[in-house]
Write the structure tokens for this entry.
Amino acid sequence: MAGTQATQPRDGGPRIIVALDFPDPGAALELAGRLPTTHCRLKVGKELFTRGGPQLVRALVDGGHDVFLDLKFHDIPNTVAGACRAASDLGVWMVNVHAGGGPAMLAAAREALPPGGPLLIAVTVLTSLDERQLQAVGVDASPEAQVLRLATLTRDAGLDGVVCSAREASLLRQAFGPGFCLVTPGVRPAGAQRDDQQRVMTPGDAIRAGADYLVVGRPVTKSDNPEGVLLTLESEISSVLAD
Ligand code: C5P
């Protein structure tokens, strides 16, 4: 399709990452058991990790799932490097840090991960931070300018990409080209409930904007037919990529 900025993720695997936002590790494992590893990856965030721990992550990895460990490490370089090594030892597919930790922290995270280890992604500006919130913590730049600044630091430190809203994907794809990985939440199938997301995009539009991986939570996890939702999302993505 004309104007499409989509790129192929480097491994050609599934582009959908299901956010396992469950307070109960048992429920997370049960859903994971129903989701084909060939059609999605899984994201484990702070709540589930704090409840389920490394053994939950290991169980998902042992079940053949690619796991995005979404713990957004942000600390002194030595500590973040150790946390990244621990994530790598768990066998996760992707791990992330806060770009706001600065160039030395980003470099330490990069160096800590072995070649062929997890993809290393940075969070730039949380979408919960608007201009006023940024000013309150001493950032006078607009959220967009700050995203670009932190994404540039991320790229310069040799990380694999950033988490960004689908609305930022197009700008970042233009700025950084096809090799930089864009992971975008806030994705909803056409006509689906938005939940608490203010601005959403359909999977097709997010891929057209340049996203590599789409994080989708509740449309899959709250569905009576999660496998069916996954297949619908996937066929929308495939039809955009085939255009
Ligand atoms: O259920 P839903 O699809 O809204 O879940 C989106 C997931 O992506 C959640 O795990 C949420 O924490 C995460 N996320 C987000 N917006 C961001 C960053 C992460 O929705 N800016």
User: Anything to note?
Assistant: Residues 18 and 216 are 5 Å apart (CA to CA). The chain has ten helices and eight strands. The pocket of cytidine-5'-monophosphate is lined by residues 19, 21, 45, 127, 163, 165, 185-186, 195, 197, 215-218 (CB under 6 Å).
